[in-house]
């Protein structure tokens, strides 16, 4: 591997414009696809095979008019007065009219008019009175009242709180919200706001009505600026510091741009783009940094020409980059075994972006170095090389010596610290973000609070209960619908029940079930389980089957499904990666040591994330002021991403130790020497990753905020506590056993030559030495 990459580095360095032109053509092709195919991202959290998703799919067939996305707007007077004052009342009616006139909103007034025309012949009309009588008033809240329109008729979908302070409009889109054209929701809210302003009413959209999150904001830009400063400090040159950023941005253009381009033909979730962007930036910078740092050290320490140093850096550091990238790709590809479409698309997009970053580091980077030539090291850097390297090496060596001298206590303390940080994870609760997850100055949070105060927390996450006749051709009778209403109302945790819609044949009915608690409350989860259990008794007594759907039910099913598949995913990824690490390090103990350290860091990450987001610790530091469950997608995603990145640092650090060991150093001194050689670049790489991920912590979307926070904390813990402290102490405890490999296994495991031993042997021949001398004299 090292010899092959050495040749590749020489080729790219000698023909820079040829290689750069190839990558430029790929980037141009991606941009052209973006021009031809408009970006179409999704916010849908679809988990095929879950009960709630199956109900949605069936409802689209039986009652297509009720299968679109749900919308909700809250209206309240700016002066805190009543909403039913004459001026406010007229403005509210005009705002409701503006919503129903929107091209993508189902006009419930037409359905109401058709029901009035048919009178008692309409299936819904015959059943509503029976259901209302059977259900009775809410258990815990004061029943809201309808808003009256022209002719004294209630306006469909509009409820006014009992104190008259707040009105809520619930309506339906003709498509799921993720399928609506870009800007649809913003235009709808603006149309309602223009009419509401006439009555001094404010309009608050719910969290389910959200457009695509911003891909790059102020936080992300600040993260990149911090990364640039770290590069400048680590490399000591503007030219050298700019190259990793150039490589990373090129990778993002191709990787993320390609993901955008595919959104025209495949369903791409907005979170998929965010994950690819996070990893593309962080990994692209780190891999380029590792190679450039090795090239500079070969120039400054060994006096090699820039050309020869670039080729050798690719043969040694490039090998580590190749296998480090491979572990990240394996960890991401492991998400495919979960069998969830959303995670599959995220894994493929992120893995493709990582693969592009590796290829750029191995081809594009040496080509750019071929243009920069000797300017990769400034005159000042050359003059101060030995002083800087000496100071850095002495500090790293002192720290390494301290770790190996006190290896027992250090090993024990790192374990105890990470376990203490992991303790809150025992209480981790999974869910999807709701309006309560947003900051208090956002419309989504204000909508959630207004609904909770005026109507009750359950109105923020009502359950949609679909009742079907067991015999598809037989209509549901008013008596059976009334029985369903009584059963639903009697369930523990239920507050109110209403019959919302029926299909034209009368064999499918849609109930609205309002819980007593909020959408992420454990009581609401228990209510959903109770209603599903009731389906069996209702089928036996009335020939009716029940199903639950809606955002709240879907969130419950998503959390349960992901919690179930996490152990399988962990076993798959750990098994595959142990094989890769065995090939790289030719050791049994080091892969196990690396995996044990990862398990400590990932559980600590989950603990800190739970403490901050669920318990509310230190939330003002990240722009939050409310507790929220851990996003159900987060454990699986963070496990995969963090494992891959943790193995990056493991490969970078331990290959330096192995390099010293195979060249004759005893195991303890090899640990200290390898640590001194690699720690500086690992610290810089980890700091850059933390900076990039931290930029996403200040994104307005709770899901992206949590993901950025968890990855930043995970890298911080894994790099500085595990790789830079736990691993050297463990290596010193193991001594020579760390490198032990059974003889029979040693014979069958291929030698991948990550440290470049074969390359050194090849370059130590007289011909190779003459060629290297020629490079120095002709530069």
TrEMBL record:
Q: SUPFAM superfamilies of this UniProt entry?
A: Multidrug efflux transporter AcrB transmembrane domain
Q: Does the keyword Metal-binding apply?
A: no
Gene3D superfamilies reported in the protein's UniProt record: Multidrug efflux transporter AcrB transmembrane domain
**Keywords on record:** Cell membrane, Membrane, Transmembrane, Transmembrane helix
Q: What's the domain of life for this entry?
A: Bacteria
Domain spans labelled SSD? 221-371
Record carries keyword Cell membrane: yes
Q: Where does it primarily localize?
A: membrane
Q: Where in the cell is it found?
A: Cell membrane
PANTHER family (UniProt xref):
MEMBRANE PROTEIN MJ1562-RELATED (PTHR33406), MEMBRANE PROTEIN YDFJ (PTHR33406:SF13)
Write the protein's name.
MMPL family transporter
Organism, scientific name: Streptomyces lunalinharesii
Q: Taxonomically, what lineage is the organism?
A: Bacteria, Bacillati, Actinomycetota, Actinomycetes, Kitasatosporales
């Amino acid at each position: 591997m090292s010899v092959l990459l050495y040749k590749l580095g020489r080729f790219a360095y000698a023909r820079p414009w040829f290689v750069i032109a190839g990558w430029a053509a790929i980037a141009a092709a991606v941009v052209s696809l973006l021009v031809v195919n408009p970006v179409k991202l999704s916010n849908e959290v679809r988990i095929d095979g879950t009960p709630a998703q199956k109900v949605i799919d069936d409802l689209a067939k039986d009652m297509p008019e009720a299968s679109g996305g749900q919308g909700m707007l809250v209206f309240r007077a700016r002066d805190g007065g009543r909403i039913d004052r004459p001026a406010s009342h007229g403005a509210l009616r005009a705002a409701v009219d503006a919503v129903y006139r929107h091209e993508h909103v189902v006009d419930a007034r037409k359905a109401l008019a058709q029901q009035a025309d048919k009178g008692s012949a309409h299936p819904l009309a015959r059943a509503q009175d029976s259901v209302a009588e059977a259900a009775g008033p809410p258990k815990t809240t004061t029943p809201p009242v309808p808003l009256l329109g022209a002719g004294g008729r209630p306006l469909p979908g509009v409820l006014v709180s009992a104190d008259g302070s707040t009105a809520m409009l619930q309506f339906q889109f003709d498509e799921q919200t993720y399928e609506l054209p870009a800007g649809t929701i913003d235009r709808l809210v603006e149309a309602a706001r223009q009419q509401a302003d006439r009555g001094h009413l404010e309009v608050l959209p719910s969290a389910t009505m959200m457009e695509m999150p911003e891909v790059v904001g102020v936080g992300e830009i600040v993260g990149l600026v911090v990364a640039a400063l770290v590069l400048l400090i680590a490399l000591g040159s503007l030219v050298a510091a700019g190259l990793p950023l150039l490589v990373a941005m090129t990778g993002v253009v191709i990787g993320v741009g390609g993901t955008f381009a595919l959104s025209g033909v495949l369903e791409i979730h907005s979170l998929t783009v965010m994950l690819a962007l996070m990893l593309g930036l962080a990994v692209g910078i780190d891999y380029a940094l590792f190679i450039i740092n090795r090239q500079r050290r070969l120039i400054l320490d060994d006096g090699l020409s820039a050309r020869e140093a670039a080729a050798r850096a690719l043969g040694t550091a490039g090998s580590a980059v190749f296998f480090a990238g491979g572990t990240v790709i394996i960890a991401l590809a492991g998400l495919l075994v979960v069998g969830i479409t959303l995670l599959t698309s995220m894994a493929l997009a992120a893995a493709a972006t990582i693969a592009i970053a590796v290829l750029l580091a191995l081809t594009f980077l040496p080509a750019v170095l071929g243009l920069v030539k000797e300017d990769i090291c400034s005159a000042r850097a050359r003059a101060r090389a030995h002083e800087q390297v000496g100071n850095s090496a002495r500090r790293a060596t002192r720290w390494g010596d301290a770790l190996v001298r006190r290896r027992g206590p250090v090993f024990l303390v790192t374990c105890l610290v990470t376990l203490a940080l992991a303790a809150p994870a025992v209480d981790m609760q999974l869910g999807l973000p709701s309006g309560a997850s947003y900051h208090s100055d956002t419309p989504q949070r204000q909508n959630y609070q207004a609904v909770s105060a005026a109507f009750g927390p359950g109105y923020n996450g009502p359950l949609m209960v679909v009742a079907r006749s067991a015999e598809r051709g037989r209509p549901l009778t008013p008596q059976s619908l009334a029985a369903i209403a009584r059963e639903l109302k009697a369930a523990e945790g239920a507050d109110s029940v209403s019959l919302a819609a029926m299909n034209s044949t009368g064999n499918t009915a849609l109930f609205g079930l309002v819980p007593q608690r909020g959408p992420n409350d454990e009581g609401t989860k228990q209510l959903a389980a109770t209603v599903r259990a009731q389906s069996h008794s209702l089928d036996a007594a009335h020939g009716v089957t029940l199903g639950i759907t809606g955002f709240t039910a879907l969130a419950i099913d998503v959390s349960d499904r992901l919690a179930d598949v996490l152990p399988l995913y962990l076993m798959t990824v750990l098994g595959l990666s142990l094989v890769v690490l065995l090939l790289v390090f030719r050791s049994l103990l080091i892969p196990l040591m690396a995996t044990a350290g990862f398990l400590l860091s990932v559980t600590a990450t989950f603990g800190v994330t739970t403490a901050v987001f669920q318990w509310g610790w230190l939330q003002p530091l990240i722009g939050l002021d409310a507790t929220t469950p851990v996003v159900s997608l987060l454990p699986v995603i963070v496990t995969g991403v963090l494992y891959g990145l943790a193995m990056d640092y493991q490969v970078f650090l331990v290959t330096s130790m192995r390099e010293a060991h195979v060249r004759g150093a005893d195991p303890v001194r090899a640990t200290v020497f390898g640590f001194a050689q690699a720690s500086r670049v690992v610290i810089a790489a980890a700091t850059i990753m933390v900076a990039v991920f931290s930029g996403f912590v200040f994104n307005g979307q709770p899901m992206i905020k949590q993901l950025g926070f968890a990855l930043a904390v995970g890298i911080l813990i894994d790099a500085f506590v595990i790789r830079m402290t736990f691993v050297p102490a463990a290596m010193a405890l193991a001594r020579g056993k760390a490198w032990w490999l059974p003889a029979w296994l040693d014979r069958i495991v291929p030698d991948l030559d990550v440290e470049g031993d074969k390359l050194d042997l090849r370059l130590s021949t007289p011909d190779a030495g003459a060629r290297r001398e020629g490079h120095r004299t002709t530069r």
